[in-house]
Write a sequence for this structure.
């Protein structure tokens, strides 16, 4: 059939676009990577996720300010001996303020040292990223071997099982990635060069780091407020005769405690040892009832609340970390 068709001099015309038409259309497009812009025409892909996350962040902030901040303020006020009957001298009050100052300076110094270390690591990765990776892997192996040996000598051989498993996994990982270190070195140099030419990315990452630190403070206040609300009023003993109870809203009340007489509720019997034992059991039962007033079923609720609190912290920290990685990439 085809031979007969071509034998009859059949002409087949296939339309082709000219190069000039294609070039004119391609010239209208901007060069790639010259002025990149985000296309918002498709809308937010994770709109509901964004709404749920910011609603969760708002709940954390409100609970931290309403429940946690009054408790923290009350603890600071009573710890700094602003009670009228507290037998605390001015020297002890000044020492407490001095300790707070030392803690603030220590946190600031640790932040500065961490920033300088990160900056030095950034320049070190530009010079010899491959050697840094190799030294890091070798140091990790040496530390794990030392830990296994110390546990075997000082503790017991059973304590070496988990560190030994981690050591084996690390050795397997090291054997798999050792040949790919030069490839990773090239990528690290390219990434560091891009960050060096665009310093605004580092400023954005630093801003997100500050936001993450504020997030941790709000989360800590929320945990403090929730735990205080679940455990009931907190008792701060000022001295042997006075104590302070702090309720959920941070208000405090001062009351006087009287010591229990030695002969109070004495158990008379001809067997002194048995009487002391019974008296101790009765006292321990009353003592435990003060701290175990809630039923055992609330332990499940506490576990659920603790899991949700840890999930909240991980969700927020991981979200801000992903923002830094996305901006850097």
């Amino acid at each position: 059939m085809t031979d007969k068709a071509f034998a009859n001099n059949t002409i087949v015309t296939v339309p082709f676009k000219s190069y000039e038409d294609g070039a004119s259309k391609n010239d209208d497009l901007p060069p790639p990577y010259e002025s990149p812009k985000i296309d918002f025409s498709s809308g937010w892909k994770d709109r509901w996720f964004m709404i749920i996350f910011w609603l969760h962040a708002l709940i954390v902030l409100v609970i931290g300010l309403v429940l946690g901040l009054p408790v923290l303020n009350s603890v600071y006020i009573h710890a700094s001996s602003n009670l009228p009957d507290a037998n605390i001298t001015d020297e002890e009050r000044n020492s407490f303020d001095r300790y707070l100052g030392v803690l603030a300076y220590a946190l600031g110094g640790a932040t500065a040292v961490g920033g300088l270390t990160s900056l030095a690591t950034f320049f070190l990765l530009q010079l010899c990223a491959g050697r840094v990776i190799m030294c890091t892997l070798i140091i990790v192996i040496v530390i794990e071997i030392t830990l296994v040996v110390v546990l075997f000598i000082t503790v017991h051989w059973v304590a070496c099982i988990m560190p030994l498993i981690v050591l084996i996994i690390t050795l397997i990982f090291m054997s798999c990635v050792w040949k790919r270190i030069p490839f990773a070195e090239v990528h690290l140099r390219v990434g560091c060069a891009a960050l060096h030419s665009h310093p605004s990315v580092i400023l954005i990452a630093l801003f997100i780091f500050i936001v993450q630190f504020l997030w941790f403070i709000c989360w800590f206040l929320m945990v403090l407020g929730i735990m205080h609300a679940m455990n009931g009023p907190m008792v701060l003993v000022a001295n042997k005769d006075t104590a302070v109870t702090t309720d959920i809203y941070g208000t405090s009340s001062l009351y006087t405690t009287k010591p229990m007489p030695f002969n109070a509720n004495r158990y008379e019997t001809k067997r002194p040892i048995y009487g002391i034992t019974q008296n101790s059991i009765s006292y321990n039962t009353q003592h435990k009832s003060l701290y175990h007033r809630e039923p055992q079923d609330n332990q499940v609720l506490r576990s659920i609340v603790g899991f949700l609190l840890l999930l909240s912290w991980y969700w927020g920290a991981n979200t801000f970390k992903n923002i830094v990685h996305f901006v850097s990439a």
